[in-house]
Amino acid sequence: MKTGWFFLGIMLTAYLLLYVTDQPGFQKTTNHLIQLTTNIIPLMVLVFILMYLSNLLIKSGYVKKYLGHSSGVRGWIIALTGGIISTGPIYVWYPILRDLRKEGMSDSLLTALIYARSIKIPLLPLMIAYFGAAYTMILLAYTLVFSVLNALVLQLLIPKNKIIKQ
């Protein structure tokens, strides 16, 4: 918590120095900050709503059963499918994925889900138009295979008891 206050102090000092030394730069920076904040607020509201709903609806028994260490092939399919159909910026998903991890989602399935997010369904027609269907399908297959392989490598490199749970 002290780090946050320290960072806030540094930023306020930087803004004060900018205000004293460069009024147009301060105005431009302030306008950009206001625009950025107004763009982020709706996303943060969405994140809080999704976190609330996930805490309300998703019970740890379900997560452990369908996305836990013993979920088997079904867990891999759910994780890969979830990664492919997830949309929006990844930072919106981090709190939700953290909550799922706390409820018992395995780290390997979490890794596979994040890796599979690189497949963007809306962009597939454009990719097919530029590179052809065969290339696109092979690349998609490689992406899915390597998302699983990377998840398995992570599972081997970092045993369950070594991962820090928050």
What does this 3D model show about the protein?
The protein starts with a helix and ends in a 9-residue tail after the last helix. Helices cover 80% and strands 0% of the residues. The protein has helices at residues 2-21, 23-57, 60-67, 72-85, 90-102, 107-116, 124-131, 133-157. The protein has one domain. It is mostly helical. Helix 6 (107-116) runs antiparallel to helix 8 and helix 7 (124-131) crosses helix 8.
Radius of gyration: 21 Å
Compressed to H and E, one letter per element, the order equals: HHHHHHHH
Number of helices: 8
Helix content: over 70%
The termini sit apart by 16 Å
List keywords for this structure.
166 residues, mainly alpha, 8 helices, 0% strand
Architecture blueprint of SSEs:
Layout: H1 2-21, H2 23-57, H3 60-67, H4 72-85, H5 90-102, H6 107-116, H7 124-131, H8 133-157
Please outline what is shown here.
The protein has helices at 2-21, 23-57, 60-67, 72-85, 90-102, 107-116, 124-131, 133-157. The protein is mostly helical.
